[in-house]
Amino acid sequence: MGAIYALVALGFTLIYNASDVLNFAQGEFVMLGGMVTVFAAAAGVPLPLAALLAIAVAVAVGLGLYYLAIAPARGASAVSLIIITIGASILMRGIASIVFDKNFHSLAPFAGNKPIIVGGAALLPQSIIVLFGAGLIVLVLWLFITHTLTGKAILATAANRLAARLVGINTGAVVALSFAVSAAVGAVGGVLAAPITLTSYDAGTLLALKGIAAAMLGGMGNPLGAVVGGLTVGLLEAFGAGYVSSSYKDAIGFLVILLVLFAMPQGLLGRAGVERV
Amino acid sequence: MRRLLHSPYAVVVLLALIVALLPLVLPSTFYMRMAALVFIFALAVVGLNLLMGFAGQVSLGHAGFFGIGAYAVAVGPAHLGIPSWAALVLGAAAAGLMAFIVGRPILRLRGHYLAVATLGLGLLIALVFTNEAAWTGGPDGMPVPRLVVFGFRVFGPRMWYWIAGITLVIGTWICVNLIASPTGRALRAIHDSETASRVLGVDVARYKLTAFVISAIYAAIAGAYLALFDGLVTPITAGFLRSIEFVTMAVLGGLGSIFGGIVGAALLVLLPQVLTVFHDYEHIVLGAVMILIMIFLPTGIVPALAARFGRR
After folding, report:
1. For the segment B142-172, what is each residue's pLDDT rounded down to a tens digit?
2. B183 vs B3, more confident
3. What's the rounded Cα separation, in Å, for the pair A81 and A255?
4. Is residue A237 one of the residues assigned to a domain?
5. B197 part of a folded domain
6. Which residue in A has a C-alpha nearest to residue B125's C-alpha?
7. How far is the C-alpha of B94 from the C-alpha of B71, rounded, in Å?
8. Where in the sequence is the domain holding A168, given as residue range(s)?
């Protein structure tokens, strides 16, 4: 689970860095990834193709979100933008409940259901796939951002939008790109997680909240922090469910985040920001 | 006349007139019920507006306080033998105390961090209500006994219309008074610039905390009213979507405009009723309306209208 949170948190961080928007619709990308794959696979599309289709749909929705809702509201306050993304998330959920249905769905695991025994602990093959898949995405993303011109443009826009525009970077396109990449990352998370966790039209909300929390925990705007935060939240939940009480599983993550924010308002890996007045 | 219109108390007078005259035009108890719901939600939004619109602090967790009020009137009579009215007062006090305790560390945070911290707080409160099934009935919720005041049973839309309406007028009046006071000026100064107001000697932490506690109490009273009115509480009362609903009401209507908050509450309570015609498409329309209003009227409905008519 931690790996999924990490992917959601990573998606958040991408959009937040490029545009300062806290995207509450991030969980819906994960939902789209899972749901489109499930329905395409049920319609007879081979699994890899179904997954690709799901990612394509999510990317299209991500771009639509940016061009139809975020871009026209440029210059609106942070709260207005939050409400826009929440409105978008309600809208997507409404559409998903009609296009798909309101039931829970599961996908057959990619590599069978037989647990692998590692040193006395039973591991589902799918968990390993999720972990490796997430690791792979983080690696690819890191290579993309640090080694390509487009990636560097994203970094530059994140660092200083005005300066980036001055050196000739099309910042609008970069922000749109970060929405697309972020949607793709979320959708991959959804595809990978679908066999473990059930997916349904309203699966996105809690994921989005935990993803934001994970991103905050790591320090907002720090991609590495997002991954660390996501894994931490996932582990804490697992341990909390095992040692404290499974009914308070969801609470543990948020409690820890509150405590961390009290002690370290910038998150675990965040830099202490100096605010200009 | 002009001076009267621009006096802050004009809102209170206008609201009192609306509350007094509305029953004359409402055709049935169904509409009375809707109006009572609008007043109850508006009460919570007026409180939240004090925090968000005037002090400039975002809270995505106010449903938590709303839930504390609602569960107080449910758990108090059922498990502790406290009469409902006393449970209502205790619930409001508990929410205020809770806001006071967590307020200081939380309000040190800014912007998105504050939003997420309050969101976490609200979710934690909702989770407690869901999981302490022995006390709260768990996810199914629990029934709430009718309010009895001086041996007089309060029930039905008509009676709640008057209670909620009068409370809203009083709540708005207190809020207007507060904004006109030095506290209100300090809050607006904090909204404009925290650093500048600190330099001028404003105790920023204390005033933010004051606004937080007051808005929590407003939310708790509104929550208690809703629970008593419906005769039922469930964890959804305190859920994340309810918090979002409050914030959306405040922002749609217009932050920093008391009347705006009431308009926002009316819109979000009545819209789903209108949209039931569309059944499954309700969510789509609601989401689209939220996005469109934020794009085209970013300051909210009431300030945008005021600006248009003021210029003429």
Report:
1. 777 777 666 666 667 778 888 888 888 888 8
2. B183
3. 26
4. no
5. yes
6. A251
7. 11
8. 2-202
Domain total of chain B: 1
Residue A255 with chain B: CB contacts under 8 Å: 120, 124
The C-alpha of A144 sits at a distance from chain B's nearest C-alpha, in angstroms, of 27
User: Taking a C-beta distance cutoff of 8 angstroms, is the pair B46, B262 a contact?
Assistant: yes
Q: What pLDDT was estimated at residue B61?
A: 84
3-class SS of residue B9: helix
Domain-located, residue B311: no
In a domain, A101, yes or no: yes
Q: In A49-152, where do the E strands start and end?
A: 116-118, 121-123
Report the predicted TM-score, pTM, of the whole model to 2 decimal places. 0.79
B192 to chain A nearest CA, in Å? 11
Is B300 part of any domain?
A: no
Record: contact A80-B123, CB cut-off 8 A: no
Chain B residues close to A97, C-beta within 8 Å? 280, 283
Which residues in A59-115 belong to E strands, given as ranges?
Answer: none
The answer as to whether B251 is a domain residue is no
Number of domains into which chain A is organized: 1
Judging contacts by C-beta atoms under 8 Å, the chain B residues touching residue A248 are 127, 131
Q: Is B120 close to A22, i.e. CB distance below 8 A?
A: no
C-alpha distances out from residue B171 to B66, B208, B261, Å: 15, 19, 13
Residue A277: per-residue pLDDT: 43
Give the Cα separation of A242 and A259 in Å (integer): 21
Asked if B39 and B188 count as a contact pair (C-beta separation under 8 A), the reply is no
Per-residue confidence band for B217, with pLDDT thresholds at 50, 70 and 90:
very high
ipTM for this model: 0.72
Better pLDDT: A149 or A78: A149
C-alpha span between B309 and B296 (Å, rounded): 17
Average pLDDT, integer, range A104-109: 65
CA geometry: angle B232, B235, B238, nearest 5 deg: 105
Report yes or no on A195 lying in a domain: yes
HSE of B194, CA atoms in CB hemisphere, 13 A = 15
pLDDT of residue A178: 84
Residue A108 lies in a domain: yes
Domain hosting residue B101, numbered range: 2-238
